[in-house]
Every structure is written in structure tokens, then in C-alpha cells.
TrEMBL record:
InterPro entries xref list: NAD(P)-bd_dom_sf, Sc_DH/Rdtase_CS, SDR_fam
Keyword Oxidoreductase among UniProt keywords: yes
Lineage per the UniProt record: Bacteria, Pseudomonadati, Pseudomonadota, Gammaproteobacteria, Alteromonadales
Segments crossing the lipid bilayer: none
Superkingdom, natural source: Bacteria
Keywords of this entry: Oxidoreductase
Keyword Oxidoreductase: yes
Identification of the protein by name: YciK family oxidoreductase
Record family assignment: Belongs to the short-chain dehydrogenases/reductases (SDR) family.
Pfam families linked to this entry: adh_short
Length: 247
């Protein structure tokens, strides 16, 4: 589905929440979803970045997005429950979620992993994602066909030396997706993972500082998979972990 050609109205009037929407893949996904008709809810911790994405969407003729400034590191389950109630009150339902927010942490030997950094990575990459998904399910169940996309990584399928903290958070993400997909088999709600692969983002540069970013695909290059999994053409796809850049 990496060459998927999405119809222009694929996501017309669908309400889609994107986490980490301020930059990188999240910002590109929000702009791409909006260009295909979606009403985007932009969630991130830096208001100025969310406002910049908002302005780009409106300037391009997209439907006016909503902005949710939220720091996943400090948010509690009650924050997510309040957010869900606001979404239901404002939009009546939620048609999709892209869980894109995440942090890398430092690459280090397993024995040297800092305890606080472990907690921070798990809070953002796993706990926050879990609490948010739990809270959002009632809004997702109000949609005709809802799609939840989690972000995985090749190191979340096969562990890699020195990637311990991030890798474990992504192994757990795969487990969350598979559990939910099994619970919601044959329902109007589906759960899948996307592995974006090496993409020209700040996180990639952090992990591979010596790499030439010009050799990598841009976030825009990998959007066909993000469109396919969010649109109704994939409504029979559930419990899959798909690669934007298959080896």
C-alpha cells in the first residue's frame, strides 16, 4: 500500500486526532489528512508549532482544525477523559487516531539506562498512549468505521543493542495493538501499527547524527500508508503491523 493513490475525498468530514502533530511525521499526516477532507484535532505540547500546522491547513483550504495543547509526559487518565468528553460534545464522535508522539531517549548499554529516562520514555511512548486510547474508545465507538494507528519501529520487532528503552516501548506498543485488535475483531473499530522506517525527522537525526538526511524519504513520501489505514478502504485490516519502507 506504499503506492496507494487515495481519492481526494477519502477522509471527507472524518474527525481524526493526531498526536505529536507539531512537526515531523505528525505535522505531515495532519496536513495530508486535512487535504483529503478530514477535520483534524492537533495534539502536541508546543502551541506555536500546532498553530503553524493549523495555519498551513487553513491556508491550503482544509477544514478548520482543533488544537489540543497537552504534554503527554505530565498528563493523567482524567486529562484524557476530559479531552474525550470535549471531542464528543464538539464533534459527536471520533473517526480515527494516529498515535505518533514519541521520544527516543538516549542510546546506551542496557546496564547504563537511566531510571528517570526509562520512566519518561515509557510515560510518553506507552503509558500516555494507553491511557489516551482507553479514554478515546467511547468516542471511537460512535463512528461508523474508526481506525487507530500506532507507531512502531523495526526495533520493536527485533531488539537491537543499545536501543533498549525505545525498543522495549515499541515492543509494548505492538502488544497493545495486537491485544486491542483481538478484542475488537469484527467490530467497527480497528487497530494497526505503522513502521515509518528511516525518515527525515528530528528523531532520526538524533539517533543517527552522521547520516545524510538527503538519503532518506521525507514524511510526505510515506503518507500513502497513513492514508490507506485511516480510510474506509482498509476497514477489513485489523491487527497488522505494516511497513512504509519494506526491506
Amino acid at each position: 500500500m506504499n503506492d496507494y493513490n487515495a481519492p481526494a475525498d477519502l477522509l471527507r468530514d472524518k474527525v481524526i486526532l493526531i498526536t505529536g502533530a507539531g512537526d515531523g511525521i505528525g505535522a505531515q499526516a495532519a496536513k495530508t489528512y486535512a487535504a483529503h477532507g478530514a477535520i483534524c484535532i492537533l495534539l502536541g505540547r508546543t502551541v506555536s508549532k500546532l498553530e503553524a500546522v493549523y495555519d498551513e491547513i487553513v491556508a491550503a483550504g482544509g477544514q478548520e482544525p482543533a488544537i489540543v495543547p497537552l504534554d503527554i509526559k505530565g498528563a493523567t487518565p482524567s486529562h484524557y477523559q476530559q479531552m474525550t468528553q470535549t471531542i464528543i460534545d464538539q464533534f459527536g464522535r471520533l473517526d480515527g487516531v494516529l498515535h505518533n508522539a514519541g521520544i527516543l531517549g538516549h542510546l546506551s548499554a542496557f546496564k547504563d539506562i537511566d531510571a528517570q529516562e526509562w520512566q519518561d520514555v515509557m510515560q510518553i511512548n506507552l503509558n500516555g498512549m494507553v491511557y489516551m486510547t482507553q479514554a478515546l474508545i467511547p468516542a471511537l465507538e460512535k463512528a461508523d468505521n474508526a481506525s487507530v494507528i500506532f507507531t512502531t519501529s523495526s526495533v520493536g520487532r527485533k531488539g537491537r543493542a543499545f536501543w533498549g528503552t525505545y525498543a522495549v516501548s515499541k515492543f509494548a506498543t505492538e502488544g497493545v495493538m495486537q491485544t486491542l485488535a483481538d478484542e475488537y475483531q469484527n467490530k467497527s473499530l480497528r487497530f494497526n501499527c505503522i513502521n515509518p522506517g528511516g525518515t527525515r525527522t528530528h528523531m532520526r537525526a538524533q539517533a543517527f547524527p552522521a547520516e545524510n538526511p538527503e538519503t532518506l524519504k521525507t514524511p510526505a513520501d510515506i503518507m500513502p500508508m497513513y492514508l490507506y489505514l485511516m480510510g474506509d478502504e482498509s476497514k477489513k485490516v485489523n491487527g497488522q503491523s505494516l511497513d512504509c519502507q519494506p526491506k
